[in-house]
Amino acid sequence: MSSSKASTMPTSIIATCKQTRFHVRDDSGSKGIHIQGLNITIAPSTPTAAPVDTTSSTGGKPAKTRAPKSRARNDGIEILPSADLQLKAGVHYGFVGRNGTGKSTILRAMAEKLIPGIPDNVRISILQQTGDEHGVSSGSPSSDTAGQGGIKDKNGITVLQHVMQSDGFKNEVERKIGVLSHALEETENTWEPVRAIRKLRHEGLERELFLAQKNASLRSGSRGMQARKDLKAVELKVSESAKSLERNKEEDGPSEIQKETQEAVDLLDHLQCQIEAMKITDIEAEARRVLLGLGFKEPSFEQPFESLSGGWRMRCLLAGILIQKAEIMILDEPTNFLDLLGIVWLENYFSRLRTVDDDRTVVLVSHDRNFLNNVCEETIILRDQTLSYFKGNLSAYEENVEAQKLYWGRMKEAQDRQIAHMQSSIRDNIKLGKKTGDDAKLRMAKSRQKKVDERMGVQVSAKGTRFKLNRDRVGFHDSLRDEIEVPADEKGISISIPDPLELKFPGPLVSMESIHLRYKHQSEPVLNGIDLVIHTGDRVGIMGLNGSGKTTLLRILVNSLKPSQGTVSRHPRVTIGYYSQHSVDELKAVGQSESALTALSLLSRDAGGSLAEGGVRGLLSSLGLPGRTASDVPITQLSGGQLVRLALARIVWNLPHLLVLDEITTHLDFHTVIALVEALSSFEGAILIVSHDRYLVRGVVEGKRDPERENGDAGNVDMDIESDEERLRRRDVYVLRRGKLYIQGDGVEQFEKSLQKRVAKMMPGD
User: Fold this and answer.
1) CB atoms within 10 A of CB 480
2) Residues 6+ apart with CB under 8 A from 313
3) Are 7 and 45 contacting, i.e. CB atoms less than 8 angstroms apart?
4) Taking the model in full, what pTM does it have?
5) Of 91, 83, 102, 97, which is closest to residue 42 (Cα–Cα)?
6) 10 Å Cβ neighbour count for 436?
7) Structure confidence at residue 645 (pLDDT)
8) What tens digit of pLDDT does each residue of 471-508 get?
9) Whose CA is closest to 611, among 594, 630, 595, 633?
10) What is the pLDDT of residues 403-433, one digit of tens each?
11) Residue 185: phi, psi to the nearest 5?
């Protein structure tokens, strides 16, 4: 058993796996990953938690220390106790699991190659949810750095330059070319080329030393002995190289200087050939295409990267990942900062990778169900601290689970009836045998009891054929049959939104007439003649590209912004609950200013005595924040999904008649999105949604089931059985474009088709 650990984070990732003398393989030609017995634990970084066989990100000499395994496991949070990690080359995977189960931790352990057994020659790039310096990484020390890790100086770098320089392998080649070129230009100092080639050679040997140490730590038996011999040989080379770096010109003769100068010239020629083979002009063209597809305009290519907002910076990082040629591409919530045009473009981008036989493996985490269904060929499921795999997209997996539940449920019911009948027969035979002294009856009862004890269970093989004991259950077991296990429903987040109080007299809740807005007198209008009326029970969805003015329209509707022209009328008794797309950030700021503040204390303060503590707890529990999570956990320690539920509680405690929701699904996993769709669908008040999530708008506004599951049931929401009130409910989807609202007769599908046409013109070769 061997382990590896990250020491650069507030918490450390400890990864171990099954590595024996019979298991380690040389995967020099493989681009896939197959790790057995994977254990991943998050442990707090303490002075006693020393790194294990690790090294710095600059490729320095590894520090060989040993940490106690049992203590590390007991002190940390176990993510995976014993799982199999399998990634096949060229397959697009969707990685699903509830928030907080450790998806991001597993992906980071993969990308940073903290997991022993990941081939060192496999290049891995990752886009993480955060936009920090670690948002893009490539993994092991001295390996090909992806994204920001390969950019030495970001000050003043433009958006286009940032994307082009995100390929760490190319950056490393260019760095070496720079070192050698500068040294060879020093014609007056003949010693500079020698120093340069020795420095680069020493870096290569340090890299070789790191790999040798890794191999020696993984192998055992005869191969382990050979690996340790190889390690000693490499250590000797590194020592000699270090001594050569310390020598000066006088200690080497002219012939040695001439020989190493020629080596520098040859290496420079080789590196320049590598750069030419990379087709730099093609990289720039590809970077421009990707940036345009992700929503950047041509003039913004020359904008400084540091001047970008968080959302646009993440798009730039995503562009840098897409143009690389890493064998494994990991994207953690890439759609969070994209509008629907960017999402549709990204779907087409991945579809194009398959058509051109691109062998890059893609691992995607996303709350957008439609995106996962359209992109992913296979699904990885993280559940109950295990990894399972399904050949098909998310909707196919859910449909399969429902079919399996039905199949095994019926089999178990039938067998339970059979067992009950046999048990009754056994009791009767025993009773009759003892009464009459009939030994045949007793033997029959004993035989049937043995059949019940040993022969009841799964009656079919894994292939669906008739079960045969000597073929399908070889070896020693407690019983001769596997017990029939019906797949259990995954315990989901329950969300319940209280209905509003009935208004005493009818009328529209909100009416907007001829709304115009200009931020500057001479500028183009952001809103240009908006008319919108919302009545009780209405379902209205507004979609559009980023920057089209959707949030501005909502702010006018909730009276936080005044229009330049036009009138907004509201029902005298209407209560509006407004979820802003910045609600989570606002909660984080409140939590940082008051570190002891909890969800319970914050909501009690908002209610101002209108709700007793029991009422506040009940509301928080109905939204997925029960018990001690509400009363004991500070807001600063709540996850993004929990902060969304708290923000929702803050706007529904006073029973609003109209819910205005702006991008509410950004921090939610798709399980919670399903629960939210169910809760909003049963809400009796009016709802106005602004979102790029097609599943949310289809489910809540259009009242449609998941189109990917024609025979399934989207989130257990019964969309077919509607009341008369439900059928009369207004359901309209609008698109905000050039300051005007355009109703979509075919709903989300109509808008999606228009974006597909735009994307088709943007893709190369069309």
Assistant:
1) 14
2) 131, 305
3) yes
4) 0.78
5) 102
6) 9
7) 92
8) 555 555 555 666 767 777 666 678 899 999 888 888 89
9) 630
10) 888 877 888 888 888 888 888 988 988 988 8
11) -75, -20
